[in-house]
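Marked as duplicate of an earlier ticket. Keeping the data here for the record.
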Amino acid sequence: MEEAPKAQRGYSRDKRPDCRQVVIAVVLSSEGFPLAYEVMPGNTSDKTTLKLFLDRIQTQYGKAQRIWIMDRGIPTEDTLKEMRQSDPPLSYLVGTPRARWGEFKEALEKEPWHKLRSTVEVKLLAHGDEVYVLAKSEGRRAKETAIRRRKLAKLLRTLRALRRTRERAWKRDTLLHKLGAAHKEAGKAWSFVKVTLPAARQPVNRDTFKFEVREEKLQDAQERDGHYLLRGFRAGDQAGTLWEMYMQLTEIEAAFKTLKSDLHLRPIRHHLELRIEAHILVCFLAYCLHVTLRKRLEAHAPGLTPRAVLETLSGILMLDVHLPLADGRELLLPRFTQPEPEQRLVLEKLGWELPPQPPPRIRSAEVVAAAKRPETKSKM
């Protein structure tokens, strides 16, 4: 798209690789308030955005004792090394792939669990300049187990159906196509099944096509369900505090969810880059107001959400009442409708008062006649 160079095809979280997109990076404070955003080409990788923001935030707000909290897919090992070796060193708290849990499994088993909530426990391990926090959530464990069990059960039903004796045996190519579709639908659950395929030009039957569940691998995955490993540098030495800090990432997830749903960030119906960036700017400013309203509700009306408040107050309408006078002039009365009891309750909780009704205006006869005159358009 020549008019918008940043609109490129890239990895789409919405599973729409056919559509051009732009990538938006957002930085929030620890309280959840938006600080900055950046619009980048749609084929930008998440791992390439971090250094840009590190430099931008420090240039704009100065060097301070900040702790950068990131998901495991954002930083690379080289980036983390640069953060540790920078002057001054940059503190961070980042999620770690589960594969790395194996490196510290024996050492972590010696550390005691500390209960934070009824369903959350954590333990901490110091390793060089960094600390590792292993967290265990019963709610997350139940969710991960249920998802795997559902996908694995469906995969096994599919494999049993394919292995069932038929009057006309499957052709090997047909079998491979069906297994490919089953693999795609099963996702990670496919790795828990070992499938034996018939060799080329070999008939497909119960002897040549077999499958079995990888019991040891499945059991190991079930033991890891609900566990996740955090990695911190100069971010603190209390497991509970570090876990609470990492949970602030939910603010980022909520930010993008709000931008995409309530504030209608997408789809972008513009083709010029300036208009695309203007559209995103308006959405970002709207999100700033959205967060401000949410924080005010937390203090004055914890049971309400910004969406509920906006839907309730949207019933207050602004209208103009036109009253013709005997001399041809017109009396214009701008008025807003009186709030209903539910709306008055919301306004009272937030400490807001509606402004006084605007004063009436009188329009001359010439202005009234011009407003009533039908508009004519020239044909091109």
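See parent ticket for discussion. The chain has a mean pLDDT of 85.
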